[in-house]
């Protein structure tokens, strides 16, 4: 005998829905949690299971940017020509050594030569300014004395 579609809707056919489940319901609170499937499974050899949950991290190591120390080359040329030739010439030599050390990657020597070139340039500039002031004062004194002698 074939059951009719109406028999499935009969309340007696729903008795299996009212039975208790085979496992107890999960506890509400701090009790034991129900077992869950593992979060990440290692794929079998040769099996592609799509993207994994763990992405390998790439480590990128960058070298620090090299510090090029100033060579003060233009400053050295100008102090050699216009201020004090001996100190300007010495500053020019250390400026060229600074440039060479920067290009070869010897940053300790470049820093030392750069500092020395700057110091020599400042000394040459100071002596140039001082000698210019002394020359102006001597010229003023000479011309005032010469002018006062010619008037008397």
Number of helices: 4
How many DSSP-defined strands?
0
* Terminal residue distance: 158 Å
Query: What proportion strand?
Result: under 5%
The helix fraction, in percent, is 40-55%
Q: What is the residue-mean pLDDT, rounded to a whole number?
A: 78
Low-confidence stretches: none
Q: SSE order, as H and E?
A: HHHH
Largest sheet: none
What would you report as the Rg, rounded to the nearest angstrom?
47 Å
Derived structural class: mainly alpha
- What is the overall shape? rod-shaped
Give structural notes.
With 152 residues, the chain is mostly helical. The chain has a domain at 73-151. Helices cover 52% and strands 0% of the residues. The protein contains four helices and no strands. The protein has helices at 5-8, 73-82, 85-104, 107-151. α2 (73-82) runs parallel beside α4 and α3 (85-104) packs antiparallel against α4 (107-151). It is rod-shaped. The protein starts with a helix and ends with a helix. The mean pLDDT is 78.
Entry summary:
The protein has helices at 5-8, 73-82, 85-104, 107-151. The chain is rod-shaped, with a radius of gyration of 47 Å. The protein has 152 residues and is mainly alpha-helical.
SSE topology:
Elements: H1 5-8, H2 73-82, H3 85-104, H4 107-151
Helix pairs in contact: 2-3, 2-4, 3-4
Structure keywords:
transmembrane helix; mainly alpha; CD225/Dispanin_fam; rod-shaped; 152 residues; transmembrane; membrane
């Amino acid at each position: 005998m074939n059951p009719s579609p109406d028999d499935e809707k009969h309340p007696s056919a729903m008795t299996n829905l009212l039975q208790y489940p085979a496992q107890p319901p999960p506890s509400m609170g701090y009790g034991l949690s129900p077992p869950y499937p593992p979060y990440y499974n290692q794929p079998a050899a040769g099996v592609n299971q799509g993207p994994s949950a763990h992405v390998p991290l790439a480590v990128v190591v960058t070298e620090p940017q090299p510090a090029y120390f100033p060579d003060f080359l233009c400053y050295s040329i100008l102090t050699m020509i216009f201020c004090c030739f001996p100190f300007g010439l010495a500053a020019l030599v250390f400026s060229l050594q600074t440039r060479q050390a920067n290009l070869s990657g010897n940053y300790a020597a470049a820093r030392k030569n750069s500092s020395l070139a700057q110091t020599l340039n400042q000394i040459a500039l100071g002596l140039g300014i001082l000698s210019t002031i002394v020359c102006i004062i001597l010229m003023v004194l000479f011309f005032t004395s010469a002018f006062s002698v010619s008037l008397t």
